Amino acid sequence: MDVIFDPLLPWPALYVAAAITAVFAILAIWRGLGGWWLRAPAMAVLLVALANPSLQDEERDPLSDIVVMVVDESASQRLSDRESQTAQAVDALTTDITSRGMELRTVNVPDGQGDAGTELMTALSDTLSEEPKSRIAGTILVTDGQLHDAQRAPVLEAPLHTLLTGRDTDWDRRLIVKNAPAFAILDEEITLTLRIEDQGAVPRDIPARASLSIAIDGEEAQTFQVPTGEDLQLPLTLPHGGINVLQFNVAADETELTDRNNSAVVQINGVRDRLRVLLVSGEPHAGERTWRNLLKSDAAVDLVHFTILRPPEKQDGVPVSELSLIAFPTRELFLEKVDEFDLIIFDRYKRRGILPALYFDSIRQYVEKGGAVLVAAGPDFASADSIYRSPLGGIMPAEPTARVLDQGFTPLISELGARHPVTEGLEKFAPNPTVDGIPGWGRWMRQIEVSPLQGQTVMTGIEERPLLTLDRVGEGRIALMASDHAWLWHRGFEGGGPQLELLRRLAHWMMKEPDLEEEALTAVAEGQTMTITRRTLALEVGEVEITAPDGTVTTVPLEETSPGRFTATVEGQEQGLYRLKEGDQESVIALGPAAPREFIETIASGAKLEGLVDATRGGIMSLEDGIPNLRMVGEGRNAAGRGWIGLTPRNAYVTTNVTVIPLVSPWLFLLLAMVLSVGAWLREGRR
Hints:
CATH superfamily of the largest domain: Class I glutamine amidotransferase (GATase) domain
Keywords: Membrane, Transmembrane, Transmembrane helix
Number of strands: 39
Structural class: alpha/beta
Protein name: Threonine dehydrogenase
CATH architecture of the largest domain: 3-Layer(aba) Sandwich
Largest sheet: 8 strands, mixed
Transmembrane segments: 12-30, 660-682
Organism: Litoreibacter arenae DSM 19593
Number of domains: 5
Strand content: 25-35%
Strand order of the largest sheet: 16-15-17-18-26-25-24-20
CATH class of the largest domain: Alpha Beta
Distance between the termini: 47 Å
């Protein structure tokens, strides 16, 4: 039963009345009135009567206390015998807590989404937000202590306890990739920093050196003996452009907790620093400047332009000494440094006696060893002085028939070209839409008739004659464009066309960029989902064979989604390196990290929870020493000791009924005020 005030007037009005009463009392004292000591109590009685003191009686129903138990069920809790330790502790505590008449809220916490790790504090915060704080008697965490969201811990008013799974003898070895770039320039050395680290109670007989194997793109691994506990500097040069998948693996010991953190997968995109191009021009024409402008507009292109402005047969009497300042380094370009170029373009060039057969033979060898040549043929290609009549003709994909067709035509993508990555979907870059199968780009006005010898014709011209033919020669590649009017697209003739896109694709195909390979098997990962793409010039493909990180093999059918592209979407069951194979094409892809966040630190420890536990006077106990007993402790007292943990009773209740009655009858207040007032009057009247 409590005394409360239910004023008959607002409190501000009572405060004003009290101030006036005090002023009158002071005046009475100052004037020397003999009854001031009776008048002041009379006015005070009236003020108390207006404040209306009452007795409040509540009927309360007690509420049971609530204990929250958060159970860690993440991947690291499945190591060793931690699952059985957890199960025994949960069963024992559940029985003990419920037998005391308390309510138990059990929260099971699995692995976080997207390799977020163990989110114990997030689960605890979400649970406590749904419960009244006044009823929480305590919180118990059953975990290995390796949580990843400690910053989200809620403010707790009751003890927090941590029961640790694991053993004192646990130890583990892990591989750490300390730095790995996402991109690297081809032919330039980069350095990766690795570290092999031992954690926990490492046995004395474990050597201080470990066996490290390194594999690139799933190829055969190389093994090295390296020290543990030291940073290892690994110099590396990427073997090819595009995604390079590097897999590192440390040999596991049978006594360590897990080998899931003994591997690491690094994906580095190989890019070219600059593209070195040699442009060899013949007779000047309207398209020569277009080629030069296109190549010079790209800051990543280093261009060397070899052109003949004054042919040998021209005789105008000008002394040779006045025609040039220095001799052009022809021999250096075409013999000594030809291998330094990524691409050589012949634009309407013909044999003039300036470049001897030895130079053309050097270019042929350059292609066979991995170089790239693009021939933009003009009328000279059909003449007797054609470069086809040089040693370079031995690698040409088509031979000229000596006919030059001077008429307008619209370049078309062949049936094969619709599946070839160089011309696939090229019509999408046309300035106008395709109508009746005719791409919406401008016409060309001349074509050199050629007879295909080998390679792949991806574009056709007049009456489906070969216009663009691609071929592989040895380790290199060659392309023949049977027209010198591609520049009309760049000039915007009849709307123009995608000359820049075509040139870019041609150059990248010749540079063997993986994205433009005709036959390729690739995969892209998004979370645990991988999208597999099989690119081919064939009309059909078989099923793709997928080897999971645990060695299981599954086959998945591929569906044609566009000409030359067959795809499939597969959900990976676990994180790690997957190997893909279809026919003679193989690829590898990593889903998630090879060592998930759960396995970065596997040794049980309460270090990350010490601050939270100490703030609530809780305790951190190891389940290896036994399951602690429960005790009831007062609020503000230590809630943990040897072999026991404490819960704080909250004595919460709910009020079911409230009764309010006046503390004193109003008539009694009135009578008392009258008696005091009359007494003051009589006192002052006798005086």
